[in-house]
Amino acid sequence: MRVGLLGCGAVGGALLKLLHSDAELITARCGLRFEVTRVAVRNLAKDRGVDLAEGVLTHDAAAVATDPDVDVVVELIGGTEPARGLVSAALSAGKPVVTGNKELLANFGRELSDLASAHGVDLLYEAAVGGGIPLLRPLRESLAGERIHRVLGIVNGTTNYILSRMTEEGASYAEALAEAQSLGYAEGDPTADVEGFDAAAKAAILATIAFGSEVMAGDVYREGISAVTADDIEVAGRLGYVVKLLAVAESEGGTAGAAVGVRVHPAMVPKSHPLASVRGSFNAVFIEGEAVGELMLYGRGAGGMPSASAVLGDLIDAAHNLRAGSTSPTPHRPRAVMVPIDELTTQYYLNVDVLDRPGVLAAVAEVFGENRVSIRSMEQAGLGDDARLIFITHTAQESDVQATVTGLHQLGAVKRVGSLLRVVGGE
Amino acid sequence: MRVGLLGCGAVGGALLKLLHSDAELITARCGLRFEVTRVAVRNLAKDRGVDLAEGVLTHDAAAVATDPDVDVVVELIGGTEPARGLVSAALSAGKPVVTGNKELLANFGRELSDLASAHGVDLLYEAAVGGGIPLLRPLRESLAGERIHRVLGIVNGTTNYILSRMTEEGASYAEALAEAQSLGYAEGDPTADVEGFDAAAKAAILATIAFGSEVMAGDVYREGISAVTADDIEVAGRLGYVVKLLAVAESEGGTAGAAVGVRVHPAMVPKSHPLASVRGSFNAVFIEGEAVGELMLYGRGAGGMPSASAVLGDLIDAAHNLRAGSTSPTPHRPRAVMVPIDELTTQYYLNVDVLDRPGVLAAVAEVFGENRVSIRSMEQAGLGDDARLIFITHTAQESDVQATVTGLHQLGAVKRVGSLLRVVGGE
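Output (structure tokens, whole complex):
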């Protein structure tokens, strides 16, 4: 089975090594022998760590995508262009494609899936979400008949590392980010990770597969972690919660036609929840199904080798299907009907700095009440002449909570409305 | 797609309900429509909770297995006979079979897989291990190219429930067992669960798929939990461990020819290990792979609905393959070369009651030293005129530790050698 590789960075390089070191094992288990016949790279001179025959490396990615000496194409360039054109060309040439490209899938997944279906070949992308964790295949195949109500994911290792350091060492956001950057866990411009763009693309892909209707990156409500303070995390800990950047996908009914809500934001998760113990750069996805109950899939969400492992699993599947003349089932997925964030109902954590004077608490509480937000617990801490009020609400509607925040800003005694965090996995 | 169901207990009944309630969803996602045309049961009069046409229910399981009006057979009778004969008959008649029968697979898996291959049909059994958790498919497909070194599983909910109660409430084994029985989590005769037979069958199936060589139930070294005391659990907790009944499968190299060790026994697991927080009747399997690193798959390991969810996933896969004229990859798996338990190397926990007299500790320590067992930590607790010595060893070989136990029994000052627990996931 001849493989054409587009891009040879950390994941591509690891894949080359795996195909070399595990060749015998793959043949024994699957009856397949892979040969990497073309590799499109930017730098022809760089050592790839394995012997490649003369002429395998090339600058010409477009030629690799449609090369007659390539049976299966692996796209590991990332980003939407030129990946989109290359993947389209490969599929159109009747070649199965394996990719780990979350941006591509979260923006052009339907177009590419339709193209794959039209040409009767596979488009597989396990590595796009959760690195090495078997996630999309179990969702797509093992749970094909399952009515899934909710998927909660820790799908970005950088932010989980930062929040874990803040939790375990009381570090500030800036300190934890700097540490993540010095260790190579965060990029120089960390926006894609810390502002939730990476997690939002993954949330879109998860929701699409879990619910059978197409969710795109732009459909996902998104907040990052840059506003989370050491104080929020300390208070959360005291109240029995940890703060995690969660990708949350919910369906009203779990069927293809049902409206879905998909969002990425920092959330307070009860310490007793299995997701609470997912620390450092690990990823995990927690699934709530009608029949199967609660599932969690946990592992290394990034890194060359774990992601290459996922690519290899897909490659074997694609090659097996190509040989058998079949493809993985590709259901038609209608465009999802999205529930706007305003209609979300969950619990909330909110802190408010007020003047420490008689009557202020009553005025604050009245704003909650006027907006139909019921308070589950409140605590007050002194802050010099001021006081900080910390609220956890009962389940309330997002629009009502936002109206509460607006109302609080209008009170003269309120000096600052601090963090608003959604509580997930509680009531 | 016409389904013949053999057995209609908790899982079969749940499957009937799922096929009914999720019919639309299955058609939308997979383009398949299932009809249950025959159901073999013992009691024709019992209400199955869904409408079945006249003549669907029958006593004649053999007729269902080969009925021309049945495309796929689901075997949920359990046990080795008559299940073995029925599954063989169905496969020989060219019908794919889905089963959740761990005893059958752990004893006759190879014979039945070969039969399935010979007839070009699927034999799928996701529900046999870990109930609803997608486990065998990810191992078989997602990790098809992965060199797996170790699989650690909590695969028996009954014993995990008992040990969790002992840990969380200081209950004795007898109390926790009685509670599990009163809640229906343990059977009247709990032997299969508490003595590790159930876990050993599952360990054999996991090892077979993870390492690509056939391990049978009888190959698995097995100890149950009935000798674990509340005191062991209390001491373990003080030392930073929890006690779990683990299924452990290890391979020297991860390839099909490599020797494998497979064992089921109570083990001390560090509290920081992801398996330590798997509580109550939940199951989880922790996988250590060369490229993928650490993975954990967690969920409901038993129960009608979770298991039916796994059966349904297999049923959809089998039906899809039947329609496409293909089958799931079925590698040839040679008989495994087993590493005897004597050659196991791990850490050990051991307690010894001795006379509290000068020179006794030296004599005890000498027995360890003579047998090449290095002590990592020791603590002594008073017991009236006696003392209890609690040891954690460095990594040592099982045969040396067993020789140490024999040597200790021969010391006059040793009154009792208590529990010997292996420590897993530590050094």
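The longest strand of chain A covers residues 241-251.
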